[in-house]
Design brief:
5-stranded mixed sheet, 13 strands, D-Maltodextrin-Binding Protein, domain 2, alpha/beta, 35% helix, 23% strand
Length: 313
């Protein structure tokens, strides 16, 4: 294999992620030529509406997956949190590299979440972030903010918001770590897979799978698989108010925390399960069933009914 083409979105963060993977592949295989092919996704085109109103899954990955299936690119680099729980037939995640910081971060001149003035305007497009913000601070005014990291920071700096919430991983990868006012620790929960990358390939491309194998981090993958099993059972995508994070406890156990919250801030259904790493996906499904039985099914039905995807069985 002499030339590899990576499919990527065109945002600064997506390009950083694709170039990071390209550099690692180049270091592993001297003489390999790695090219980037920028592909615009539906999520990149719809910047003026909340994603939950658009409906469907894979808003940031479908066009990349289509290019893979048409054999126009050899692999696609995604933020795992953008990848639906079910992949199209013929595609698979060949590698999940070591995870960056999974937490959400507050960026504000006022300081962290508790320091924001009463009634502060906070920018986000995420229903998951919205519900947790309002659960913690019902006085806040949550306003829609879409766009790439640079656009969101610029809107904050122009005075449109008192604070914004972004993934800490994206800020750190782009060199904006110093702008973080506070990283939000549990009980605040991030999106499923946040901070992790997923490298998607065709299932029949054995040579590409072998090339990517050294980039894979099984510890990260164990946690991501548990989180994605939870997401699959809940039937959600990146546009619904579902949070979850798995961590390894010692060498053989895994702890999974999750929430489903109403966009208005209440109710919020939370749960936690622990067990052997080998049973991580079963833990995810069991925790999802626990949340649904506790009342999360009603919240998700309301969100899905307003334009999101329908829950899975």
């Amino acid at each position: 294999m002499k030339v590899v083409t990576i499919g990527t979105r065109g945002s600064a963060l997506a390009l950083w992620q694709a170039r990071h993977v390209a550099a690692r592949l180049g270091a592993l295989s001297p003489g390999l030529e790695v090219r980037l092919q920028v592909i615009k996704t539906q999520g990149d085109k719809l910047l003026d509406v909340p994603l939950a109103q658009v409906g469907g899954k894979g808003l940031f990955v479908k066009e990349l997956e289509d290019a893979l299936l048409r054999r126009e690119v050899d692999l696609a680099v995604h933020s795992i949190k953008d990848v639906p729980a079910q992949l199209p037939a013929g595609l698979e995640l060949a590698a999940i590299p070591t995870r960056e910081d999974p937490r959400d971060a507050i960026v504000s001149s006022h300081g962290g979440l508790a320091a924001l003035p009463r009634g502060a305007r906070v920018g986000t497009a995420s229903l998951r972030r919205r519900c947790q913000l309002l659960a913690a601070r019902p006085d806040l005014t949550i306003e829609l903010l879409r766009g790439n990291v640079d656009t969101r920071l610029r809107r904050l700096d122009e005075g449109h918001f008192d604070a914004i919430v972004l993934a800490a991983a994206g800020l750190k990868r782009l060199g904006y770590g110093a702008r973080i006012s506070e990283c939000l620790d549990p009980p605040w929960l991030p999106a499923i897979g946040q901070g992790a990358l997923g490298i998607e390939v065709r299932s029949d491309d054995v040579s590409m799978q072998a090339l990517l194998r050294p980039l894979h981090d099984e510890a990260t993958a164990c946690c991501v698989r548990a989180e994605r099993a939870l997401l699959a059972r809940l039937g959600g995508g990146c546009q619904v108010p579902i949070g979850g994070h798995a961590t390894l406890v010692g060498a053989a156990d895994l702890r999974l925390e999750a929430l489903v919250g109403h966009p208005a801030g209440q109710p919020v259904f939370r749960g936690e399960r622990s067990g052997p790493v080998s049973e991580g996906e079963a833990l995810g499904r069991a925790l999802a069933d626990e949340l649904l039985a506790a009342g999360a099914a009603t919240v998700l039905a309301e969100v899905y009914g307003s334009g999101g995807s329908s829950p899975s069985a």
